[in-house]
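dumping this here so i dont lose it
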């Protein structure tokens, strides 16, 4: 497969316009330039100093994510899902854009251990926290810090969660564990992304992800059954139908055929689940960063008033709110936090 030719088609660019126009079109998305630059580099296209520097920084970013994931896996037990494993199926020299390093933790203690290590070793400037699901709730933490060139490159972003598949908050529930052979896990992770954000045309990176998976030896019936068990048959079918218009699917074509009987049952299940009450995601409003609380294995949830919920974590303290917090609510939360300080 000629990757650059495929990118011209996926980005709606006339090959006669040349590689500069292709790169210009790719700059509509923050990480697509990295993919285009690496593909052009593999083709031997002439490239000046600024472009080569940008590509070098992108390779360094990917290598840093890989090292970080390996170190955290050894020290805390978290493991990479989605982007980093998918990058391993790309041809040599072709760089899969890595916007985010996605990590799943076996429990909350491992999650916070990983967060503490990242905060200790990196200039983290933003830590976002949210709680979702119920019985028990799950935790998600996103850390960000500047790239080598903070203006030209996307910032580093690491997302950690105690639930591998968060669902859509409506008809697809949280599925805490992701257990399958790695290519199947990658296919599941790609399908899960269809539950979040736009359900429009998949991005070019997703098509190339599927191109990398197409050469693997999937067992069609078993793979379709696993996708159905994870409630993702419709999303997987959508992805494969789109990719089929651009590239040979290999064994994934047989997976798509095996998915057909699973679609109607999943749509019926979602229709029945549509009226079920599900608690909203509670997002943390930062109140303060703290000195690292090394002795804490978990966050502490305090409810000083019925309207106020405080989440105290090993690295920062937050007001939890399902809707944007008002200045009055924030002031009440800070007073409660300072009162808690006096008791410790």
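and the seq i came up w/
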């Amino acid at each position: 497969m000629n990757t650059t030719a495929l990118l011209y088609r996926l980005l709606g660019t006339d090959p006669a316009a040349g590689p500069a126009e292709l790169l210009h079109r790719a700059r509509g998305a923050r990480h697509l330039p990295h993919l285009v630059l690496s593909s052009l580099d593999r083709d031997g296209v002439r490239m000046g100093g600024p472009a080569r520097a940008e590509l070098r920084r992108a390779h360094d970013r990917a290598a840093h994510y890989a090292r970080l994931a390996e170190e955290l896996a050894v020290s805390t037990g978290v493991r990479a899902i989605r982007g980093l494993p998918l990058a391993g199926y790309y041809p040599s020299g072709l760089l899969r854009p890595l916007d985010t390093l996605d990590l799943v933790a076996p429990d909350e203690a491992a999650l916070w251990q990983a967060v503490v290590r990242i905060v200790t070793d990196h200039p983290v400037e933003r830590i976002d926290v949210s709680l979702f699901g119920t019985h028990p709730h799950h935790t998600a933490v996103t850390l960000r810090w500047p790239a080598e060139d903070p203006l030209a490159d996307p910032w580093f972003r690491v997302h950690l969660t105690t639930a591998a598949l968060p669902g859509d908050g409506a008809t697809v529930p949280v599925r805490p564990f992701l257990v399958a052979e790695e290519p199947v896990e990658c296919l599941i992770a790609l399908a899960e992304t269809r539950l979040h954000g736009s359900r429009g045309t998949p991005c070019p990176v997703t098509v190339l992800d599927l191109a990398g998976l197409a050469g693997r030896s999937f067992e069609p019936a078993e793979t379709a059954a696993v996708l159905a068990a994870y409630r993702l048959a419709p999303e997987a079918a959508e992805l494969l139908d789109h990719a089929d218009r651009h590239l040979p699917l290999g064994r994934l074509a047989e997976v798509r055929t095996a998915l057909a009987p699973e679609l109607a049952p999943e749509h019926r299940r979602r229709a029945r689940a549509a009226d079920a009450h599900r608690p909203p995601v509670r997002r943390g409003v930062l109140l303060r960063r703290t000195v690292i609380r090394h002795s804490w294995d978990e966050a502490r949830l305090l409810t000083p008033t019925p309207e106020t919920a405080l989440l105290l974590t090993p690295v920062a303290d937050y007001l939890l709110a399902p809707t944007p917090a008002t200045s009055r609510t924030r002031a009440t939360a800070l007073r409660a936090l300072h009162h808690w300080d006096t008791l410790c």
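The CA atoms of residues 221 and 258 lie 6 Å apart.
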